[in-house]
């Protein structure tokens, strides 16, 4: 990747939880500013451990991580939160205020912003995420999907340039997942860098520009999404299967179907073009 426009640079990053448990092994990586990256890999591959270095929740055992040129090991988490927003996998690990409004206000208030700016950001976040009617409700009484939205809205109100979302669709039905991902896609279109940890290859194929695949604490692949999913033999080393629609297209390659389609829409368009050419 091109270093001059990288927002995150990882240099020879090692991390050990204990002497026996080595979670990351010499990772070198550059995340382009404004990219939408799906972070893939089996449980225990190092996904969450890696991204927690980007907002300072973890510090390297060895090596270096910089965000916009600043070494994360030298900065407090509160300072990094202005630049890197982290949305936890379980919203109940993040929510603690008595009302939705207070939950969203908490971050901006702790940035020492003027009260009118805190209020402006809070109202904007409530509206952007469709939470205005729940502003005075206790989050604990709301459904899982709404609690998930509240956690992202709370991070959004802090205006970070980089969003890290750890399995944001877990526990959501397909419609709620798509609503959530469209909001994330809007953030990306507005210029934010998105790092999305997911086990859902369909989501990775549909929304991400780049895929980062980890295995046993090392980078197995990091490339544009289409190129990554073309490498099915390499992906199997990480026990990852490409999206089903791509596997179907490969089985139809002898009939003239492109073997690198990523989405149902691409498959349908290719199928119609194939029928017309006959």
Write up this protein:
The chain is α/β, with parallel strands linked by helices and 278 residues long. It folds into two domains: 3-239, Rossmann fold, CATH 3.40.50; 243-278, no CATH class. It is 37% helix and 22% strand. It has eleven helices and ten strands. It has helices spanning 47-51, 77-80, 100-110, 115-128, 144-156, 174-189, 201-207, 225-230, 232-236, 244-251, 264-276; strands at residues 6-16, 22-32, 36-40, 62-67, 70-71, 84-87, 162-166, 193-197, 210-215, 218-224. The strands form two sheets. A six-stranded mixed sheet has the order 6-7-8-3-9-10. A hairpin with a 2-residue loop joins β9 (210-215) and β10. α3 (100-110) crosses α4 (115-128), α3 runs parallel beside α5 (144-156) and α4 (115-128) crosses α5. The chain is globular, with a radius of gyration of 20 Å. The N and C termini lie far apart (41 Å). The model has no long low-confidence stretch (mean pLDDT 92).
Our count of domains comes out at 2
Structural class: alpha/beta
Mean pLDDT across all amino acids: 92
Q: How would you name the CATH homologous superfamily of the largest domain?
A: P-loop containing nucleotide triphosphate hydrolases
Low-confidence stretches: none
The CATH topology of the largest domain: Rossmann fold
Radius of gyration using CA atoms only: 20 Å
Question: In order across it, which strands form the biggest sheet?
Answer: 6-7-8-3-9-10
Can you tell me the overall shape? globular
Return the CATH class of the largest domain: Alpha Beta
Percentage of residues in DSSP E strands: 15-25%
Helix count?
A: 11
* Strand tally: 10
- Span of the ends, CA to CA: 41 Å
Indicate the CATH architecture of the largest domain: 3-Layer(aba) Sandwich
Order of helices and strands: EEEHEEHEHHHEHEHEEHHHH
Sheet bearing the most strands, described?
6 strands, mixed
Helix amount, in percent? Answer: 25-40%
């Amino acid at each position: 990747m091109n270093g001059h426009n990288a927002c995150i640079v990882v240099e020879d990053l090692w991390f050990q939880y204990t002497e026996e448990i080595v979670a990351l092994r010499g990772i070198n990586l550059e995340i382009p500013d404004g990219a939408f990256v799906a972070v893939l890999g089996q449980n225990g591959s190092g996904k969450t451990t890696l991204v927690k270095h980007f907002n300072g929740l973890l510090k390297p055992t060895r090596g270096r991580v910089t965000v916009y040129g600043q070494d994360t090991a030298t900065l407090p988490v509160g300072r990094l939160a202005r630049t890197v927003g982290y949305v936890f996998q379980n919203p109940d690990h993040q929510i603690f205020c008595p009302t939705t409004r207070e939950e969203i206000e908490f971050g901006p208030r702790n940035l020492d912003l003027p009260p009118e700016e805190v209020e402006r950001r809070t109202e904007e976040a409530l509206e952007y995420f469709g939470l205005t009617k729940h502003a005075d409700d206790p989050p604990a009484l709301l459904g899982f999907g709404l609690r998930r939205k509240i956690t992202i809205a709370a991070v959004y109100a802090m205006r970070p340039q980089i969003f890290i979302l750890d399995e944001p669709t877990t526990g959501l039905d397909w419609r709620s997942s798509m609503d959530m991902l469209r909001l994330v896609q809007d953030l990306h279109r507005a210029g934010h860098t998105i790092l999305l940890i997911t086990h859902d290859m369909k989501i990775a194929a549909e929304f991400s520009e780049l895929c980062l695949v980890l295995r046993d604490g090392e980078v197995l692949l990091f490339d544009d999404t289409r190129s990554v999913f073309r490498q099915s033999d390499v992906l199997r080393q990480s026990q990852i299967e490409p999206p089903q629609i791509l596997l179907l297209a490969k089985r139809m390659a002898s009939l003239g179907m492109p073997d690198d389609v990523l989405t149902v829409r691409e498959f349908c368009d290719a199928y119609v073009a194939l029928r017309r050419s006959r």
